Amino acid sequence: MAINLSKRIFWPLLLLALLALALLAHQRNVSNIEVEKDVSYGTVQGESLLLDVMRLPSPSLRPGIVFVHGGGWRGGDKRDFLALAQGFAQHGYVCFSVNYRLVNAKGHHFPDQLDDVQRAIRWIRANASRYGVDPNRIGAIGASAGGHLVALLGTVETRNDQPQELSAYSSRVQCVVDMFGPADLTRFPSTPADVPKLVHEFMGGAPEQKPQLYQSASPIFNIDHATVPFLIFHGALDPLVPVDQSRRFAAALQKNGTPVTYVEFSDEGHGIEKKANREKFATMTVQFFDSYLKR
After folding, report:
1. Catalytic residue among 97, 144, 171, 218
2. Is 3 a domain residue?
3. Which of 27, 112, 249, 256 would be 183's cystine partner, CB 3.0–4.6 Å?
4. Count of CB atoms within 10 A of residue 240's CB?
5. Residue whose C-alpha is closest to residue 120's, from 40, 11, 34
6. CATH code for the domain of 277
7. Is 238 a catalytic residue?
């Protein structure tokens, strides 16, 4: 039986809200957070690329976190991370939740999504003084398809350095939180049938048709001396992104000498639903970002 992608692929808003509650458990309120919505970080072929900014008023530079939504590369929205981003803004981060071009009938196959999120990082650095963010202390977090994209932000440098005004800025972040993102697009199981089909649509063809493109889109094949520290979460029961993806990715990072913490939840699927697991996620993610961005 084919899996219902509308229920399983797209990262549920309720689940993100629960993660946000775990993060905000010891914080009083978010009413003093400044929110700037639908800020354009560029235009590609007439399509505006938008992000939301959340921050506390501050006279000094603060570290930044970029949030990249999931949704199988064809759905989801920057609003999905609104509550979680507000939680981190309350914790002292300048938060940016980004949209990127989604796979649709017109195309937008890989590497469009990578180009967009890399452009967002470079735009943030170019506008660092405007938002009070330290351009040398930027982390990224993403779930599912967003986890895949942030993993690339931590393993590869800018693929397309256009526009010219952003070419001087790096797109590589300082650390990454990867929530059950695909790490090796060349090795996906044939079942459930909807999942490899989704990957093929994202890539614009099957692996045997575009082997080099599939490797370049797979974070596990891009690990090098400049790869940044990672915190990886994955559920052992995940029916969509096999847990072996994150296991092998974490092992490859460790072999490379890259700092990596891998957390596997034995009782989770494609998400983090259990209360104890949500609390562990919140605690470890805050500690991880603080250790690499606030030191």
Report:
1. 144
2. no
3. 249
4. 21
5. 40
6. 3.40.50.1820
7. yes
